[in-house]
């Protein structure tokens, strides 16, 4: 069974995830930081695309020692499983995900990934082939279900989110909208990719909650079924 998929992202008031140089930017404040940390701690796994790893080098660990201790007390790893979607096994072997935290790292690659890169990564992470030219996200969700992942948090970026959103592979979207404008037609947005032209294809959402946090707003959307 597929895990329950929660997409979580922070965007500027003009809908950008980062600057046009694809540099990580502080969009939210302290309270939202704790909200995201709590969501990480509640999740069984956290996923990002390789573009986010190469831009931001995230550790994706639970930052609060209290949350990590609660996870330990319930018999879990202190940090959720970290997952990277990476067709060509470009994941840097010295990435922060390997330095910080004690959770498992799983890298999904495609059949096109060079064998020597996969072998090198296998020393630090589980490497699973899922897909021919790029990673097949349906297969990834099947595999994560088999590995016991019940709740998956997806933290971006724009290309991975487009793939999940456009193929209906999500349940919920939590968008924090920060009080700033980033601008730039080439800056990544919540969903990049090809985009739809036919309105019949637009994934439709139901607004579940609105919450004011810091100087912005958190919108919780459900996939309309
Ligand atoms: N504000 C936020 O909350 C937030 C959160 C995360 C990221 N970001 C920003 O987002 C930007 C990165 O986004 P991005 O679009 O460049 O990268 P991304 O979405 O993180 O990763 C995309 C890459 O994943 C790989 N991939 C493999 N199979 C795929 C599939 N089926 N569907 C989609 N991707 C697949 C592809 O590379 P290969 O072909 O090499 O596999 C693709 O280029 C950065 O600027 C980062 O700062 C912002």
The proportion of strand residues reads 15-25%
The succession of helices and strands, N to C, reads: EHEHHEHEHEHEHEEE
Q: What's the CATH H-level homologous superfamily?
A: Dihydrofolate Reductase, subunit A
What gap, in angstroms, lies between the N and C termini? 18 Å
| CATH fold field value | Dihydrofolate Reductase, subunit A
For the structure shown, list the relevant keywords.
alpha/beta, binds NADP nicotinamide-adenine-dinucleotide phosphate, 9 strands, 225 residues, Dihydrofolate Reductase, subunit A
3D architecture notes:
The protein is an alpha/beta fold. It has seven helices and nine strands, in the order βαβααβαβαβαβαβββ. It has helices at residues 30-42, 50-56, 65-73, 96-99, 115-122, 137-146, 158-166, and strands at residues 4-11, 45-49, 81-85, 105-109, 126-129, 151-154, 172-177, 205-213, 216-223. A nine-stranded mixed sheet has the order 5-4-3-2-6-1-7-9-8. The chain starts with a strand and ends with a strand. Residues 9-10, 17-18, 22, 24, 27, 48-52, 55-56, 85-88, 90, 134-135, 137, 155-160, 163, 188, 192 line the site of NADP nicotinamide-adenine-dinucleotide phosphate. NADP nicotinamide-adenine-dinucleotide phosphate binds next to strand 1, strand 2, helix 2 and helix 7.
């Amino acid at each position: 069974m597929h895990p329950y998929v929660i997409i979580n992202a922070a965007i500027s008031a003009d809908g950008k995830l980062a600057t046009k140089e694809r540099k990580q930017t502080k969009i939210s404040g302290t309270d939202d930081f704790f909200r995201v940390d709590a969501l990480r701690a509640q999740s069984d796994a956290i996923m990002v695309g390789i573009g986010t790893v190469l831009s931001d080098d995230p550790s994706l660990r639970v930052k609060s020692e209290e949350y990590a201790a609660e996870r330990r007390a319930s018999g879990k790893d202190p940090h959720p499983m970290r997952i990277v979607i990476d067709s060509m096994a470009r994941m840097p072997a010295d990435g922060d995900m390997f330095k910080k935290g004690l959770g498992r790292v799983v890298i999904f690659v495609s059949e096109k990934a060079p064998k020597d890169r996969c072998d090198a990564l296998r020393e630090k992470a589980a490497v699973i082939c899922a897909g021919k030219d790029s990673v097949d996200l349906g297969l990834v969700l099947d595999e994560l279900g088999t590995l016991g992942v019940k709740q998956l948090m997806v933290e971006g970026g724009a290309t991975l989110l487009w793939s999940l959103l456009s193929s209906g592979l999500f349940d919920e979207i939590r968008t924090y909208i920060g009080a700033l404008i980033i601008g730039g037609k080439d800056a990544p947005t919540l969903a990049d990719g090809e985009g739809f032209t036919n309105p019949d294809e637009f994934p439709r959402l139901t607004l579940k909650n609105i919450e004011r946090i810091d100087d912005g707003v958190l919108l919780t959307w459900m996939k309309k079924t």
